[in-house]
Protein 1
Amino acid sequence: MTMFHPIKFCWNHPRATALAAAALVSGLGVWLHGILPPIAGWGLAMAEIGLGIGLARLLWPQTELVARLNQSEKTAQRIAAELAHYQTFTDILRRQGEMVTAITESAAITLIDGLRNVDAGIDRIVADCSGNLNQNAEEIEELSRLMILLMGSIQFQDITRQQIEQMARMSVMVDQHIALAHAALADLSRQFDTTSLADKLDQVFADYVMAAQRDSHRAARGESTDREGIGATVELF
Amino acid sequence: MKRILIIDDSATILLSMEGVLAKAGYAIDKASSGEQALTMLNDGLRPDLIITDLYMGAMTGTDLIRLARQVTGLRFTPMLMVTTESQQDKRIDAKTAGATGWLVKPVAPAALLQVVRQVLPER
């Protein structure tokens, strides 16, 4: 890509032409003042100024336009570089999300294994202490109930895994969009005709499976979070 | 002892449900995909109840139920869907495919056991 050098640009191109033209007009004026009678001097001076302004008007706008185009190009390059870093940022987020999933899954499996071992241990103790069972029956029942509750609660890991995976899919979608924007900024002649982020947000919404995800999405967009059309958590057909 | 086949691509869900249901006295078989479960059924496994997740890769729980209903001896076997999905139209799809019931994750152990006992009464 052509890099723009502001100093070099200003003095080598149309602005310089404008100044040279003004100098030429001024020189012409001095020469005319020298050869014509003094009475013509005032009129010539006015004509001289008018010609200078006309030339400046003709050449200055062009110079400003090119300068602004070059400034836009510089800004586009800067934004493109920033977007490249943005993608690194989302990639890091995804990798860290994967780590969280792996860690919680491993911990949840360890917990369940531990709970099952404890449960089996309690069963063995109960079998060995059959004579005293009546005294401790309520306590044993309570322990058993607690054990089942704990084993059931490990389901949290699957829920969080799905939420993290959904976030990763969303960040990939945004990354792809940013990559297209990046390419369009790097080459301003290229078209940026992809699905808008607003439409992609709608796609994301359609992919949710959990009511909580849909609610947080609606809240982020400033919409009502009233849960609609959600049936009972347990339903027999 | 009643036999229950649990299908889920999450290792923690499989272990969690196995823990809860085994403690309640059920024999448990597990599969981590619809394809694996279907193979087990085609190979002769005849559970008294099937509990399946909805989203598990290529074959969904709804697909699995639809195909399992065609396996000899499983036409009247209760099949429950356990999923995080809360959309009503997915629930209707599952019902049409032959699901017996729908449970939204996370399922409290007491609620799970209540439903299992309801669809799998002791004879």
Note: The domain at 3-119 of chain B is CATH 3.40.50.2300 (Rossmann fold).
Protein 2
Amino acid sequence: MEMIIAGLLDSLAPNSLMFVFLGVAIGVTIGAIPGINGPMAIALFIPVTYYMSALTAIGFLVGLNKGAFFGGAISAVLLRTPGTPEAAATAWDGYPLTQQGKGEKALRMAFYSSVAGDFISTAVLIGIAAPLATVALFMGPAEVFALISLALTVIAGIGTNSISRGLIAAAFGLLVGMVGTEPVTALPRLTFDIYQLGSGLKLIPVAIGLLAFSEILIQLEKFTVKGGGEQAANVFSAKREDRLLSWKEFSASARTLIRGSTIGIFVGAMPGLGAPVASFMSYDQAQKRSKHPEKFGTGELEGIGASEAANSAVVGASLIPLFVLGIPGNLAVAMLMGAFMIHGMQPGPLMFQENARLMYGVYGSLIVASFFLLIIGRLGLRVFCKAVEIPAVILYPVVVFTCIMGSYLGQSSMFDVVIMLIFGVIGYFMRKFDFSYVAFLIGFILVPEWERALQQVVIISQYDTFLFFRRPVAVGLIGLTFFVIARTFWGSLKGKK
Amino acid sequence: MTRIQRDNIAYILILVFCVVMLIWLIPNFTPPYPGYGASPALVPNVSVGIMMAMSILALLKNLLAAYAGKQVPPEESEFPDDAQTGGFTQVGRIKLFHLLSFIVPCGLLVVGINTIGYLPAAFLFMLVIQYIIGSKKLIQPFVVSLSAVALMYIIMRYGFGVPIPGPQLF
């Protein structure tokens, strides 16, 4: 008990509070810039933390990560150029609201949902982290393979009117994700003798190209070809009800927020899956369970809530496998793991024994970061809303330029800019031909883990032929995958989708 | 050209891509089977196989519908006016000239940064893009270009310590 109190008091020291506040503020700002996401921000700021104490450093980076998750929603809602991949689903309903002059309302929904998801997941991390992580501990390669297969199948149905086009896009994402070094032989695969492809295609240029640059191309097309019809810079409605979010509107989505947070916590606790998966799964579930699913994609507050609650819930939950098992669940947590190691700690179950005071201090910083997010987001919303009043002739060139330089930033490589442009054009054609870029991106993100699990299953199966059939969870997940496919096809035959 | 016809062309192009992948690219650019685990070509082949199977199914569906004289719903056969379906994709006609008018300057920026350096190339790029979008003012494009390029330079060079190609400003 003394350790808990001492740790929590450490997190309330002025120095810690100041850096957590700075972390959240910088995170929100950086998250709003297309091309710079949480993991990248953490990587860039890790050197800054060399001169901080361990708790201050971890608090700063955790705040940065939390802020970036909400920041990603700002550009998604106002510009439909998600600052982070997980905010893509937020853009589907957030941007139509901006077009209707209700951008401030959409941002408020995104913000409160994000804070709700964040608080719930932080509470779960602190309270019931260990039992959840214990479940994940029993997941072998067969379960991981089955779980990712299920995620890919569910995602293929999102973002297109045709399941076949969704599957084509997901398979294309898998194929593109396999470019690079093959995991078993460690030899180049599908690199076409281009040495820059040896380490594979990076997520940042691919995601910026598909999500941001192709969207800007479409927006510019509408702006220039159709004589400047619509633009990102919409004037907000003067009506109070169009700007503010009422308690009735927010509470109407309460079930969606709880469901989204639960999905986010579950996905976050599972190594290998990430916030985009949680966000898309939550959105999909909200749409399927809604009384008016046809409104999704046209400016439905529930859609924003589903996406934001889920992706913010991932932040806290993704620390569960790190703290309990020492396994980084996603890229942002991998970066945090690096920061822990820089400060002389090896994340894992022993940390609670060897650095108990620090661990409770980190818990305290997580709670403090959630409160700071609430304050910063609450005070800064109007400022963020003002950003869209910038004229399109200024805004679009700056966004195009930011996309290009954002792609360059990752590896200081013009090759990444070329990759971003190529995927921008691919994204343009995918949108025009109704192929789901979401399915593509999820396939691209999940393929390394999926293939690794498959390879492990095949290698183990050489000694244990019936391995897969003796893993009931894996069999259940694969059965669920086939059920989802069959149900979707049956639905399309019956004309439901 | 109707939307169905255009979709059919897309499916045929995907089929051609899959055939090229299966016959030439995957066999020639994939490591040989090491003797354990799954073949490095397995997952690429499965992915291409899914793409191929789905394209063939979609083509067959369209062909059978056309053969049976089945009426295709307008939302599936025509281009929507607003170029929007459910907020996810923007189904519409391809504006190739528009696309090239933005992609070409972006490509030239990549070449320009590598040859004349970041500062002049990015400044010219910003001016050109603003002109293409339709900026008619004289001073504003210069101010916007200068501000954006300088701000990005400061952030990249001093904020993130990223090396910027070409001559350094300060």
Note: The two ends of chain A are 55 Å apart (CA to CA).
